[in-house]
Amino acid sequence: MFWDKKIETISRSGLERLQLKRLKSTLAGINKNVPFYKDKLKKLKIKPDKIRNLEEIRNLPFTTREDLRANYPYGLLAVSLDHVVRLHTSSGTTGKPKAILFSRKDIEQAADLIARCLVMTGMKKNEVFQNMMSYGMFTGGLVMHYGAEKVGLLVIPAGPGNTDRQISLMQDFKSNAIHITPSFALYLADVLEKKGVDPRKDLFLKRAYMGAEPYTEATRNKIEAIYGIDVYNSYGLSEMNGPGVAFECPEKNGMHIWEDNFLVELVDPKTNGPVPEGKEGELVLTTLCREAMPIIRYRTGDLTSIIPGKCRCGRTHRRVSRMTGRTDDMFIVRGVNIFPQQIERVLMAIQGVGRNYQITLDSLDDMTVKVEIRKELFDGKVDHLVNLQNTITEKLRDEIMVRPRVELLEPGALPPSEGKAKRVLDNRTL
Ligand code: AMP
Ligand code: ZN
Asked: Which residue, of 16, 183, 228, 291, has the greatest Cβ tally within 10 A?
């Protein structure tokens, strides 16, 4: 199903023409109205009206998170305040937040992209959508909400947490779809189990939209099996509207990134050079339709690859693979570069492993992986616990080349996560 078939299936040449037109008008706008960009373009002697093709994007400067912070709060605004109707911020953990300002047209456009995503996965007007993402400055709440309303769904702005109320809402209003972080979906599954609610029989869910943080295919499979639903990967970041940047279609093989709104590049994070299709690189995005706060060549920090070839669904917008991590997620133990996703991939494929885990970095040479395991394994016998502990340790060592300390915990022992999970506790920098 399509929300806007014409644009979703536009020919590649048509799409590229549209991108070039929008890129030029974006550049002309920021060159006129945003001193930060005007100075940069001037230094590089770039004249927006002289740009002939999309490849020339490579001559433009990157925009980094630091640039956004340095220009907080209004520095990157391209319109006067009377055109600005909303503020969102990005969920940074340190320093000043990154402020993202939206005009009415930007809000409409963001909602339209969400509508594309939801309809693509089969959502129809008469369905009930429970949004379990935070409704504050975080875009996962409001941006998704507006898009879901645009489709005509009944939207329940439940927000995160308050698990008992979430369950009653899902039961009373027969919610068909939820928008949730993977960590909260796993936690909710624990609570459902404790309450004796079988998500496959006692709920009405068909789909979950899951994103806001990286997770593995194994976690998706696990959540699909527990709930008996289809889980669709949803990627976005506040700097680019929030959710609705890239989303899986029913093929569930990569996320279509809406290229009429975002010009996509993949760069090598070290050399900043282009990365070919199929190879992993850092996603760099340029907004093509933003009115209030256009951003060019934004270094998302997210690592992914472009999936070569056409998608069977007929959409022509290219697909990006599941994010493998962020350039700044990586940590080093004993000189080895490790991504949390490598650990999650191993854990979630082991029978007996439960729903939550945490990595603590104790020194430059030591890491501990705390893993919740299934309730039935705590039956007073120690043999299988020791075996499981050894299996986990060995499989992790095979993957990351470092032997971690592994602690097995009962379900619910780790702090539950209602928003984005904190998977790595780095005690070395505290
Ligand atoms: P925020 O701006 O607070 O919404 O955070 C955006 C960041 O969350 C992105 O840059 C990614 O690092 C991460 N993120 C969002 N969705 C996903 C996803 N589906 N898979 C992996 N990481 C994600
Ligand atoms: Zn597709």
From this structure: 183
